[in-house]
Design goal:
The complex is a heterodimer of chains A (about 500) and B (about 140). With about 500 residues, chain A is an all-alpha fold. Helix content of chain A is about 70%, strand content about 0%. In chain A, strands 1-2 form a two-stranded antiparallel ribbon. The longest helix of chain A has about 35 residues. The two termini of chain A are about 40 Å apart. With about 140 residues, chain B is mainly α. Helix content of chain B is about 75%, strand content about 0%. Chain B has five helices and no strands. The two termini of chain B are about 45 Å apart. The chains are: A mainly alpha (about 500), B mainly alpha (about 140). The interface between A and B is large, with 67 and 73 residues.
Chain lengths: ~500, ~140
């Protein structure tokens, strides 16, 4: 399916409009600042930002959220380098070489290498997304409800196995998510279900309070519980006066080209797999860079290849994560689930039909993502020194501000205190799930997919009509179900035996 | 209590939740419809049975790490209760009274004593957010 050139050009024109560029810029700045704050993270920022995008047009709203995501991945490296505390989980492997390099008096070199690597990985995966998503959408259009149901079961089984350290707990978390998604009106018979007589639950549990409660407020509460009067120590990093130690030369960047390419490839492949995540990609890339290096003993002591490997991979996940989102309408991570929410708020359903019905928007989004990478680079270069001061802000104020924004955002999105109360309840649920090892990510994705899952289930049962042999007419669905069983075995049973 | 025991207990709790759903909650909270074999209870019941099965599997073969710190749990419980109380009071006292009080209380409880940052977190930030939302965006707050 060759897209109409006029649609592509119109989409790119929308992407480069002043309004859209402004929101991309705002998202990048916010993302980099938020990413520099340990404990907040771009996902939390995206969850809080969604209600504030209600009044925007679709493209600026989604470009804003994508900007936060991309900026957050750059910002997360700043505290990783300066204070050995990653701003985002994916920056953990960046601390291994970033902080030792900073201790040698080269913090700016470390942060700039992280920036260049992030942007490189991001550009690579965005180009992959732009290249493969349209053909994949054609394949996805051939899938009927039986195949879609089987695909969702496969995706949930993979996600349940990859996030967290227990397959059974991951599956139980996903089951709980599906259960919560069934609150409200039954889609087939239009009868109230599991609403306990509350009118506010007639339309089901709203996604925004649940997501913000479990992702943002639960994490804020957890971080607050760890503080307890500790004064943040002053940062004391020696700063070299040698200009070469404050920048990354072209020769140094070129010397890292294979590391960057390997990291970008790993991040892109891992990012396209639902549930795999930035952190896994970063560590896999770091480990393979160390293995491929002629001086593996220098890793962990300030080797810029370590930073390059980690940051290129974790940022490459961002673009690849959009592949299942745009082509199949399936979120592979909480970040992409939140982006789908933004689509749905504007009355659009991501999936294969999006390319046919909203081609201009899709290509506008591609253009916005490319612009976001360029903006990320420029803002990063300009703002690195400034954002590094953000790290010194006291956690008490940061979390107080975040909590205020959560309250306000949820109130604005759902228009009532009931939703804010729900947010608080789910903050408790999310916290308990985290401490007992039940994956909040699996819950949120299953909760998000729930209505579509049930619809596909109803359609499948109607097609099958009590004759299981009808499934033999759907070999793709059978293959996906078998893959689901295999992944449950591989990630669950064998993964446990290997102690992974 | 070690991780294996806590995992077994959590598995048992999930199985019990599933049973409660099947026996009491779902029948009470869903309607029977005439005709068709896809009922409003179909998906909830399927999920409940999954919880029972997976819960029993997890009880028999516990896996995964637990990160249970009773002190932290108590503190989080306190913050959640405080936030819940704030939501309850907000319907009578409004955002401008309750939010600064909530953030100030939390900041003091975690040990923040510097007047500048207490004013920033407990006063300036809620006021600034209120101003942006109600005056700039024209939306209402409680």
């Amino acid at each position: 399916m060759m897209p109409d050139l006029s649609i592509i050009l119109l989409g790119l024109g929308d992407a480069f409009s002043p309004t859209n560029l402004m929101f991309v810029l705002a998202g990048i700045v916010l993302g980099q600042v938020i990413g520099a704050l340990p404990g907040i993270g771009p996902v939390m920022a995206m969850a809080i930002a969604i209600p504030f995008t209600f009044t925007l047009d679709t493209l600026p709203a989604i470009a804003f959220l994508v900007g936060i995501n991309k900026g957050g991945l750059v910002g997360g490296a700043i505290p990783a380098v300066l204070i050995n505390t990653p701003g985002t989980p994916d920056a953990v492997s960046t601390t291994l070489d970033g902080h030792p390099l900073a201790r040698q008096g080269k913090p700016m070199k470390a942060m700039k290498m992280a920036l260049y690597s992030s942007v490189t990985g991001d550009v690579f995966s965005d180009l992959t997304l732009i290249t493969v998503s349209a053909p994949l959408a054609v394949v996805a259009l051939m899938m009927g409800p039986v195949e879609v149901l089987a695909l969702m079961i496969f995706a949930l089984s993979v996600i349940a196995g990859l996030v967290g350290d227990s397959m059974t707990k991951g599956l139980m978390a996903a089951a709980l998510g599906l259960l919560c998604a069934s609150v409200g009106m039954d889609p087939l018979n239009a009868t109230p279900r599991l609403d306990f007589g509350w009118l506010e639950l007639f339309d089901g549990l709203p996604l925004i309070p649940v997501a913000i409660g479990m992702l943002a407020v639960a994490e804020i509460m957890r971080r607050l519980s760890e503080i307890r009067g500790r004064v943040r120590p002053a940062i004391e990093i020696p700063d070299s006066q040698n200009p070469a130690d404050k920048r990354v030369s072209r020769a140094e960047y070129w010397a890292c080209r294979f590391t960057l390419l390997r990291g970008a490839l790993i991040g892109t492949v891992v990012g396209a797999i639902p549930g795999a995540g930035n952190t896994a990609a970063a560590f896999i890339s770091y480990a393979s860079a160390k293995q491929a290096s002629k001086e593996p003993e220098s890793f962990g002591k300030g080797n810029i290849h370590g930073i390059a490997a980690s940051e290129s991979a974790n940022s490459a996940v961002c673009g690849a994560d959009m592949i299942p989102l745009l082509t199949l309408g399936l979120p592979g991570s909480v970040g992409s689930a939140l982006i789908i929410t933004a689509f749905m708020i504007h009355g659009l359903q991501p999936g294969p039909f999006l390319f046919e019905q909203q081609g201009r928007l899709v290509y506008g989004l591609f253009g916005a993502m490319i612009m976001a990478n360029l903006t990320n680079l420029i803002i990063g270069l300009v703002g690195l020194r400034l954002w590094s001061r953000v790290v010194t802000a006291p956690a008490s104020v940061i979390f107080a501000a975040a909590l205020t924004l959560c309250f306000v955002g949820v109130y604005m999105s759902a228009g009532g205190l009931f939703a804010v109360g729900l947010m608080v309840v789910f903050a408790g649920v999310g916290y308990l799930m985290n401490i007992f090892g039940f994956s909040v990510i699996a819950f949120i994705i299953a909760f998000f997919l729930g209505p579509r899952f049930e619809q596909s289930l109803i359609q499948t049962l109607t097609i099958v009509d009590g004759k299981p042999m009808t499934l033999l007419d759907h070999p793709v669905a059978i293959a996906l179900l078998l893959l689901a069983v295999l992944s449950a075995y591989w990630l669950g049973v064998r993964g446990r035996r290997r102690g992974t | 209590m070690n991780d294996r025991t806590v995992n077994r207990l959590s598995g048992l709790a999930m199985a019990l939740l599933g049973i409660m759903l099947i026996v009491a909650i779902i029948p009470d909270q869903t309607e029977r419809v005439d005709g068709g074999w896809i009922q409003p209870q179909t998906l909830p019941n399927t999920v409940a049975w999954l919880l029972v099965g997976l819960g029993l599997v997890h009880t028999a073969w516990p896996s995964g790490n637990i990160d249970l710190d009773p002190g932290a749990l108590a503190r989080v419980g306190f913050y959640i209760a405080l936030a819940g109380l704030a939501v309850y009071l907000m319907q009578w006292l409004g955002f401008l009274v309750v939010m600064p009080a909530l953030t100030l209380l939390i900041m003091v409880f975690i040990g923040e004593r510097r007047p500048f940052w207490l004013l920033a977190g407990g006063g300036v930030i809620p006021l600034a957010v209120w101003g942006i939302v109600t005056q700039l965006l024209g939306r209402s707050l409680p």
